[in-house]
Amino acid sequence: MGRVTSTALIVFCALIACSSFSAGLPSHFFIGNDTISMQIDSTRVVLKLDPGLGAVDTDTILHLVSGVIEVFDDNNAVDSFVVCRISDQDNYTRFMDFLKSHEAIYLAEPYYRSTHGSPLLVGSRFVTAFETNVELPTIDSINNANGVIIDHELYFMDNIYLLRNTDQSGMTLLEVANMYHGLDATRYAHPDFKIITLMDTVKLFDYYSQYQPHLKKVIGQFNNGSVWDFAGLTRPVIVSVLDDGVEGWSHDDLHWPRVLVGYDVADNDIDASPPPYGFHGMGCAGIIGASNTTDSVAGLGDSTGMFSMNPNCNILPVKIVENGQEGIYFSDAAEGISWAWRNGAEVISMSWGWNSLDVPPPEEVLEAIDSAFNLGRNGLGCVLVAASGNSAAVGQPGVRYPAAMNQCLAVGAIRLDDYRFAYSCYGNSLDLVAPSGETCLQGDVWTLDRAGGFGANPYLDTVCDSIPIGAWDCPEVGYGNNGDYNCHFGGTSAACPVVSGAASLLLSVDSTLSATQIYNVLCSSAVSNLSWGSLPNTPDVEYGYGRVDAFRAVLSILRGNIDNSDDLQIDISDLVYLVDYMYTNGPTPFPDKLLADCNCDGQVDIADEVYLVDYMFT
Fold it and tell me: CA 515, CA 340: separation in Å to the nearest integer?
């Protein structure tokens, strides 16, 4: 079909008035055994023009349609659909019926909202899991009969496909997805909604360390007995950052070879770098693994700007946010998780979550997370860390998915005084909290940005109207281009990578620990605050088990390595060190005397000597 002429436009507009009524539109879909209800916003429709029209002015065409008041930008629209406001709400079904049948419109969909009012806009994508014994020729036959095409099979997932509705089906997306859900040949089917991103003592000679009190809260005594003074923390644990991308070549503080070759789910290639103004993934990666100087003498390495939780880890970037888009598709999240654990990830950090509590995570996301937790790391399990969400202050406090899943560590955000930020989501599934900053680009957590003129800094804000132009400029300290750093990170997005970094430190000490053991160590070593009204080692609804503490966590698995040796062996030298300390006024175990607390009773005494002798010789 060629470009639409003015005559065609007139016919197009005139036909609306004589459109016939159709059956009622569906307002539900299925996830597992749950029926998810939605509301149709009868003031709007979502349309995609026929691709055969070529380069046409969408606004011009749709503004000439009787009943369309306005074509407007909506960040929730997907798949090249546009949102239109309409005038005739009483005849909504008739209007939709006409739009579906007209030659200028490729697909027409209702504008859906969750039961709490959040937009849940459908496009043309839906996920379908066929039974394992259903082969591709049968799948093709089913699709051909229903006017559906295959986009692709999800990465290493068992007979699960991303399908696309076409104008040949004659159905809306919910109609076709629900129909596929009921087929004998399928396990499940549902629309591929987008998940909205919740965007939310080694001497360290570090120019910006004075601006990083958030990390100092969890690493011990900065430059005087910190977590990096424990031996054996140099194994390069692989931490996968599932986000909008990580820059791998240009940044002095984090670059190849520590930034590994990653994966872009949307483009199906290895270029996992952020879009020009993408900064979220870089901020998370910087908190986890910026290359802080780890010399014992201040000043020997002054080429760094940031310190991080684990400067020896490797970052495996998995890009699950499409360039120029907001939110994350269900299918992209599932594929990203699947790709990460199958490509060596030991920790998977997810600073995002589904913004609606009305919609549980779909089966393919559950399957991907379950596989990562049970099969990753050769059966020991990937450590999955996820942000709890930033919506508590607007009356939606529940922990978001995937953080709410049992296989994930759910992380909330606290202030430097250890009290919960009002925005930080909470509930019975919350596991830990970590220091962070405010949300809406007003945080004060320092981390990495993209190098030079890309990323967040300098940034002309379009999200938070309260931030004036130029407010992103970070103060220069000593030297360097402040455009390489982000001084306004925050939210549970910044809290999540703190815990991811702490988990990677534990794995650098002992790579044989299972994911469950890592979770138990981090939770049991967390710092609880009696002013919260909770008891130690008892989860609190607002704070979980407490503030993560990397120093205490590493200390808890290194008891007995009293001489703090690099080989991490407990041997005769540790017994000699203990005896010298107890009886001859020898040196105190460093970085903490509790390295000699072999029986973990909080005291260093004769019982520890007996315990150590029994362990070594009997």
Answer: 15
